[in-house]
Amino acid sequence: MIFGCIADDFTGGSDIASFFVKGGLRTVLFNGVPSDQTIPEVDVCVIALKTRTQDTQEAVKVSLDAIKWLKEQGAQQFYVKYCSTFDSTPEGNIGPISDAVMEELDAPYTILCPALPVNGRTVKNGCLYVHGVPLHESSMKDHPLTPMWDYDLARIMEPQSKFTSMKLPKGLTKEEAEEFIVKVQQENASSPFYIIPDFEKEEDAEQIVQLFGNLILLTGGSGLAEPLAKMYQQNVETDEFGRSNSKVILLSGSCSETTRKQIEAYSQSGGESYFIDPMKLLSGEESVEKIWNVIKNTDESILVYSSDTPENVKLIQEQGKEEVAELLEKTTAELAALAAEAGYHRIIVAGGETSGAVTKRLGFTSYHIGESIAPGVPIMIPTQDTSIRLVLKSGNFGDTDFFLQALSRT
C-alpha cells in the first residue's frame, strides 16, 4: 500500500478516491475502520470517517485509530483529507486532527492544501477562494453545520491548532522554496508546523508535488491526489462493472446553492420529485412509510429531497438543530434501504452527512471506485454486491445537470 488516507466524511472519501484512480492507482474506499474484513491488494486505502462535524475529542480519537490501522497495513505515506471549503470556525476539527496525526507520525511539518481548482477552489496568497470569491463572502458562509467566516488559512488555523502555519511565498523556485522551509524548521526548533502553498490552477499541483510529494503526511482537499498517483505510473481499469438497467432513486439532503440548482434543473427536465418537509416529519404528519408509497408508485426515477434555502433551514433549526438533522438523515437512509431491497440498484445521493447516513444504513463497508460523473464524484460499486451503482456527491460538486448526468452514466 502506497497511500493511507482518512477523510472527514463519506463524500470526501469518494472524492479523493476518484482522483487517485484517475491518476492510475488501485484504490479501495472503506466506510469506517475495517475490523475483520479481507483487505484487497491495492495501492491506496481511503477510510471515510464522520469527523467533519463530530465532537472534537472523538474526532481526534477515531482519526488516530484509522491512521494506526493504516500503518499496520503497511501504508508508506498518509493523507488527511478535509473539505475543499475548509471550516473556518474556531471550534473546527481540521486543526486538532491534523495536529494529532502529525504527532502520531512524528512528521516535522506538513502542508495545508484545500484547493481543488477543477471545482473552483483555489488558494492565493494563503487565502481560500470559491470560484474567485473569498470563502467568507461565498454561499458557503451560510453553511448550516460548518459556516465559513474567514478565508485566510493561517488565521483560520490559529485558534484550531497548537502549531504555527506559514504561507509559502509566491513565485519561488524549487531551490528557494526548499531554503524557506529549512529556515522555518530552524526557527521552530523541534515543533511541527504547517506550510500553506498557493494553488490557483491545476498546473500548480505538479510544483507542490515536487516540493512536498515525499512527505510522510499531507493534508488538504483532493487536488493533489491525481498528480501524486501519477508519480507511481500504475494503470487502473475503471469501467469493468458496466451500467445497470434497474430503477433509480435520487436522494438529496444538501442545502448548498449548487445542489438546489441541480434539483431545479432535474425538475425542469420533467423528472418526478418529492419534498420532505421537516416540520411534517417532526409532527408525525409525514413518515418513511408515506414517502415510500409515493416512491414505489413511480415508473422510472424520482428525486426525494429535503434541500432548502439557508433562511428556511435556520427557521427549521429553531426546532432543534441536531434533532432536525438526525431525523432527516435517518428518514433518507431508511428510504435508501427500502429502495435497495425493492431492486433499485442505482442510488444517487447529494450531501456529505446524508451520504454518510445512507451508506451506514445500507451496510456496505468497502467499495470499488469506477469512472467519475463529475470531478470528485465517482460511481462506486460495493465489494459485497457488485450489482449496485452508488453515486455520492458533496453538496457543492457537479454541474447544474448533475442528476441527469448521473442517470445516464449509471
TrEMBL record:
EC number: 2.7.1.217
Occurrences of domain Four-carbon acid sugar kinase N-terminal (ranges): 4-227
Catalytic activity: 3-dehydro-L-erythronate + ATP = 3-dehydro-4-O-phospho-L-erythronate + ADP + H(+); 3-dehydro-D-erythronate + ATP = 3-dehydro-4-O-phospho-D-erythronate + ADP + H(+)
Top-rank taxon, per record: Bacteria
UniProt cross-references to InterPro entries, sorted A to Z: 4-carb_acid_sugar_kinase_N, 4-carb_acid_sugar_kinase_N_sf, NBD_C, NBD_C_sf, OtnK
Broad class of enzyme this protein falls into: transferase
Keywords noted in UniProt: ATP-binding, Carbohydrate metabolism, Kinase, Nucleotide-binding, Transferase
Domain Four-carbon acid sugar kinase nucleotide binding, chain residue ranges per copy: 250-403
Keyword ATP-binding part of the UniProt annotation: yes
Alphabetized Pfam families for the sequence: NBD_C, SBD_N
Entry-linked SUPFAM superfamilies: YgbK-like (SSF142764)
GO molecular function: ATP binding; kinase activity
Family named by the database record: Belongs to the four-carbon acid sugar kinase family.
Functional description taken from the UniProt entry: Catalyzes the ATP-dependent phosphorylation of 3-oxo-tetronate to 3-oxo-tetronate 4-phosphate.
Protein name: 3-oxo-tetronate kinase
Organism ancestry: Bacteria, Bacillati, Bacillota, Bacilli, Bacillales
